[in-house]
């Protein structure tokens, strides 16, 4: 069973998501939190597999809570929820360690699948989020020097895989694109994370944008 903590200041949202997720045979909602501060406490106590995190909340917002949760447990998986696909905090949330992003109007199936994807260690990057990140880094202009320097540690194939990860492709899609076994792709991804000191695919995608490996139209 995938154990989920739902964090949202609106009771109807929490109850709605609880009903939808508890109806799934492989998912169990183990708790709810009304704000970021309560979320940090409940994550420490309940140890959920996935945290469904709203961004805009009183006391402590989802961005701050995500940062604290990930700082306390590098393996924590946070799936950010928001009403708008162009929410100004999406980019910051992903940089803070969130493993994915989902709109609140997602269907029950999309919500459950999002939880499963994040729980499995994959990143959940919707096309709208990918475009948002590219746009953000385009606005920032020059690439971050540390990111560029660390690229030198990667092999040519690892760099190629990193670019595809940043474009939102799954391991299976990358394997098909490169005409290699999916297990080979998993090995490349693991080596990329170790070499760059990153925790997951989402951070790898952000790193690729910072290093300007991925640019608008690329």
From TrEMBL:
The keyword DNA damage does not apply. InterPro entries: CheY-like_superfamily, NreC/VraR/RcsB-like_REC, Sig_transdc_resp-reg_C-effctor, Sig_transdc_resp-reg_receiver, Tscrpt_reg_LuxR_C, WalR-like. The keyword Transcription applies. One of its GO terms (molecular function) is DNA binding. The modification 4-aspartylphosphate is found at residue 54. Residues 3-119 form the Response regulatory domain. Keywords: DNA-binding, Phosphoprotein, Transcription, Transcription regulation. It holds the Pfam family Response_reg. GO terms for biological process: phosphorelay signal transduction system; regulation of DNA-templated transcription. Residues 147-212 form the HTH luxR-type domain. It comes from the Bacteria. PANTHER family: TRANSCRIPTIONAL REGULATORY PROTEIN NARL-RELATED, TWO-COMPONENT RESPONSE REGULATOR. This is DNA-binding response regulator.
């Amino acid at each position: 069973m995938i154990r989920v903590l739902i964090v949202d200041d609106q009771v109807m949202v929490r109850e709605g998501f609880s009903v939808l997720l508890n109806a799934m045979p492989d998912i169990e909602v183990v708790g709810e939190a009304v704000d970021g501060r309560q979320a940090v406490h409940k994550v420490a106590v309940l140890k959920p597999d996935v945290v469904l995190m709203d961004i805009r909340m009183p006391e402590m917002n989802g961005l701050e809570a995500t940062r604290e949760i990930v700082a306390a447990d590098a393996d924590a998986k946070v799936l950010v929820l928001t009403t708008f696909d162009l929410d100004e905090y999406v980019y910051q949330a992903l940089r803070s360690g969130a493993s994915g992003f989902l709109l609140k109007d997602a269907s029950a199936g999309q919500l459950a699948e999002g939880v499963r994807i994040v729980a499995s260690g994959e990143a959940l990057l919707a096309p709208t989020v990918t475009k948002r990140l590219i746009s953000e880094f385009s606005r920032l202009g020059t690439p971050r020097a540390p990111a560029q320097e660390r690229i030198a540690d990667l092999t040519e194939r690892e760099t190629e895989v990193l670019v595809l990860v940043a474009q939102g492709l799954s391991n299976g899609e990358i394997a098909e694109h490169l005409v290699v076994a999916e297990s080979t792709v998993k090995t490349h991804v693991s080596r990329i994370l170790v070499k760059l000191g990153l925790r997951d695919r989402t951070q790898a995608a952000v790193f690729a944008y910072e290093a300007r490996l991925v640019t608008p139209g690329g």
